[in-house]
Amino acid sequence: VALGSSLQNIVTETQNEAKDIIEFLKKNKLGRVTFLPISSIKTRGLSIGEKKLLQSNGLIGIGSELVNYHENFNNIFEYLLGCVLIVETLDAGIELSKKSGHKYKIVSLDGEILNPGGSMTGGSFSTSTTNILGRDRQIKELEKEINDLNNKYSNLDIEAQKYQKEIIELEARLLSIDDCLSKYNVDLVKLENKFNQFDSDNLRNNSLIEKYIGEQNQLTNENHTSNISIVDLEMEIEVLEKKAKLIQFETEELSKESDKQKVIKDESIKSNTDLQIKIATVKQELKTIADSIDNYADNRINLSEDIKKKIKEQENNKTEVLLEKDRIDLLLNDKKKLSEKHLEYDIKLDDVKSERSNFMQTYYTDQEKLNEMNRKIYDIQKSASSLEIKQEKYNMQLENINNKLWEEYEMTYQMALNFRKNIENVTRVQNEIRQLKNKIRALGNINLDSIEEFVRVSERFEFLTSQKKDLAEAKESLDVVIKDMSLRMKEQFKENFDIIKANFIEVFVKLFGGGKADIFLEDEENILTSGIEIIAQPPGKKLQSLSLLSGGERALTAIALLFAILKTKPTPFCILDEIEAALDDANVYRYADYLKEFSNETQFIIITHRKGTMECADSLYGITMEEEGISKLISVKLTEKNNEKAS
Fold first, then answer.
1. What is this structure's pTM?
2. Can you say whether the dihedral through the CA atoms of 139, 142, 148, 150 is positive or negative?
3. How much of the chain exceeds pLDDT 70, in percent?
4. Cβ-count burial of 202 within 10 angstroms (0-12 exposed, 13-18 middle, 19+ buried)?
5. Which of 130, 327, 479, 646 is the most buried (most CB within 10 A)?
6. b/e for 106-128, b at 16 or more Cβ within 10 A?
């Protein structure tokens, strides 16, 4: 705090070295720097008497005596801190400042500053700014924070990869489970089909069994009928055999008969043969029926065994189907749990991605803040350098005043404080001092020719008296003229002021896009000497004085007043030098649009760096230096470009 902008000063061995660097800065347009040549810097330390005079309970010491530095830089630190007093508290600094007559720069341990002349600086320090002494620390802290954020990001990335890997494994497991479920579903369908087939086979077998039982009953009935038929046939055979024997006997008896009897015999033989064939056929049928009965019995036994096996398989299949259904239910529960876990992991992954996105956003925001801090540091250093130049200027003026005080009155500042008086009108006192000096100077030495000089002076007095009378008469006539002119001036001023006031209200609304404004005289009775008060109310704000507005609002209000004056009495030609520099982009475009509208009556030459103002211009002129030391004019007629675009 004590060094302020001097932190940016550069120490050189000699003035020539500083001169060479300054030439280099000029040549390359690299800005301004304050140099401290060791060979030419003069110390500004306090004398022993001043140190004793400034002894106080709250005084810690002199700045140059409280810091460590190499002895080669003694002049530098005596120059920078030799007249800076370090105190414990602000109250101690105020007391010491009063005691020293506000002559020295005083800095408290909390960072408050009491400047020479009585001004004070203090308040809280912004966390977003730093100085060159603390920049390394801040860089290390930021690097540490970046490393921590990078580590956190790496951990989050590893965790995200882990979750991603688990999700992939779970997805693979889910796919495997889905495949298993599909396989189980296929097996279940097969089992159900097999079960249905078993049911249909069982039904078919049951129907076959019933059919076979019916057939068996039928065969039993047929067998019983066949047995009855066999008995009848056997009896018939026996009868036929007896008849055949009888016929054979009769045939033998009648063999000797005539051809008629022979034919009868042949017919009997034929009948006998037919009967034999029929008997053989019946026997074959009986044998076939007996074989069929045996086959039906075997088939019945086999079908009974198959039915028992099918019933057992059906029971086993039912048990297996129940087990498969339980297994499918378990797999469905596992699938549901895995789906829920997959959903949970998806949510976690989304959270991790969101956290990662937030972290990256925070990281980019911190980077922007760091860049913004660097820009602010540069701006502050630049402004501090400018303030330091002004401070040096004021210090030089203060030194000249102290020297003049000694040369003319042989008094120091402390001695002059004893003769200090409150002066209400500084100009009147200065005139009295000048008159007294002139009188003293006019007395001069004793003049022996004073009598003759008196005569000459008397004559001149009479001449001057007559001249004074003439002047008084002329003054009276001039007073009349002045009074008449004042009346006319008041009338014209009031008339034009009212016009400007109306124009100002209109222009203000156009430039601000709304709101209201007004100007009025502070003293209506004394128009020509009265101050003018400007009040403005931008859109969305309350009505307030011009001094309470922001810099951009004050600038735009001033521009509105300027255009109001030009509108009252337009001029054919006007030059505007960066009057919109303090405006933001939106106000610049409104200013440019109004300027374009106003250019119908007045030709404007505008010096500007704002893009919005350049866009409304008819022609642009710029200076470039393609070769060192040779400037070149570049011009662009925007009206031609606009016409080409329009065509």
1. 0.30
2. negative
3. 71
4. middle
5. 130
6. bbbeeebbbbbeeeeeeeeeeee
